[in-house]
Structure formats: structure tokens, C-alpha cells
Amino acid sequence: MYGEIIHSSLVLLYNTHTQESHEHFLVLFSFHLLILSLDHSQQDFVYEGILPLSGLSFRTISLDRGVSHSPHVFETSSPMMESKVFICASGTELQQWLSHLEDRRYKSMTPPMSPSQCALSYLLPCDEHWKREELKTYLMQAPIGQWEGSPIQHMGQPGCISMVHIANTQKQGHQKRLMVLFPHDVLFLSVDSKSLTLRYEGRLPRHGIKAVERSALPGRMEFELMGELVEPLLITCAHQEDYWNWIFHLQQTETATLL
């Protein structure tokens, strides 16, 4: 699924808060870093996450003197997720990881990238249930350009997701956006013309907006997002299922706020 394996090894994942460490298996692919924990009782691996290399940075660090571990440590960090600290068995293993990671990160950021190398191009338009579910998973691990605020993983689990057209009711024209519902926010992302990259376009707090139905007619499924601190936005959906899902969930938020 993720292509060729470039490098892999057993490492310790170190928790900087508890100062505990646990064995994990790292697998480096062409564009992603896969993290697996070990279930010794079942003699099996457990999926712990996958990180896109294009959004990561790497550096060697030193742990506190009181920590009785190998000194060969590196840290991965990204605006999109919390940093992770890995302890290698030797200096040679550390240098191998840093070399491979930096090489693959550079190549993952080098254009042009073909649609065959990017899962996003297969998931858009998200007009089928399986595509929407896969897209939700993809968003939680994909690099998003110009991201602002806390990591996307801190926003909770995504609910509704669909491509919509958004127009500021005070101005002319409209823009195509990927609209994603989280427990406390509505997230807006733009997608490039080849469906290869995502860019952050903003978010709205759910408690500060309300959805007003405008038209549920085929070919004109529109509702308006309104709020005291938000200019009215006209949202146009491509599918009736998306329209009613958004109306239901956003009006549920209004009811909960009133209660």
C-alpha cells in the first residue's frame, strides 16, 4: 500500500512526560514513516500511526542525564502533530535513520508528484461512502500546507466531510473547498487542481455559527452559515445526502448550544 520499504529497525519510543519508553518497530517507506508497537503475547505488530515525510523535520537530541538509555536519540516534529522521540540501539543506527529520513523527506517534497503517488487523487471527489471514510483517515496523517493552530489530531474525530462551493454572500464568485466537521469546529481546506496537496483555509467554531436552509432542490442544494462574528457564507453541496447531513449536524449543534 505504501510502496517500497527503504529502512526499518527496532527502536524505543520515549515519552518525555512520563520518561517511560517502549519497544516499537519503525518502517520507512518512500513517502511515509510507519510506527508499529509490539504485542509480545500475540507475537504480532500493532499499528500506531503513519507520518507523512513531507511534513516532518528531524534532529538529534539529548535526554536528561537521569535517564538510563542509549544516548543515540532523534526527534521528529511537525506543525500537524506532537513531536516523537526515538532511541536507537547504536550511533550507526541513528546515523542511518537520519540519513534515510532526510533523503526521503527531500524527495517527497520535490515536485512534480504524479497522481499515481498520491492517495488523495483517488479519494476525490469523495462521492462514495468508502472514499469519505478513507479520506477522514488520510486527513489525520497527511501534510496540510499553511496549517495554523493546534495539531489536527487534537480536533477530535472528523464527522461529515464533502467538497462544497463556498461564496461570501456580500461578494461575487465562489470557491471550491473540502469542508470537514469536527466535534467543536468546521474546517475548510483547499485542494490543488491535480488533487495532490491540501492547504489550510480556516476553521469556524461550531458553537458560534448556525445553518440556515436556503434550497434543497436538485442542482441547488444550498444553506447559509451565519454567526455574530462571521460574515454569512453560502454553502452549495453537490449531493443531497451531503446537504442533509450538514443541516442535521449543524442544527444539532444549535440545539445543544441553546440547552
UniProtKB/TrEMBL annotation:
<dbReference type="GO" id="GO:0030027">
    <property type="term" value="C:lamellipodium"/>
</dbReference>
<dbReference type="InterPro" id="IPR011993">
    <property type="entry name" value="PH-like_dom_sf"/>
</dbReference>
<feature type="domain" description="PH">
    <location>
        <begin position="1"/>
        <end position="106"/>
    </location>
</feature>
<dbReference type="GO" id="GO:0005085">
    <property type="term" value="F:guanyl-nucleotide exchange factor activity"/>
</dbReference>
<dbReference type="GO" id="GO:0030032">
    <property type="term" value="P:lamellipodium assembly"/>
</dbReference>
<protein>
    <submittedName>
        <fullName>Si:dkey-21o19.2</fullName>
    </submittedName>
</protein>
<dbReference type="InterPro" id="IPR001849">
    <property type="entry name" value="PH_domain"/>
</dbReference>
<dbReference type="GO" id="GO:0005737">
    <property type="term" value="C:cytoplasm"/>
</dbReference>
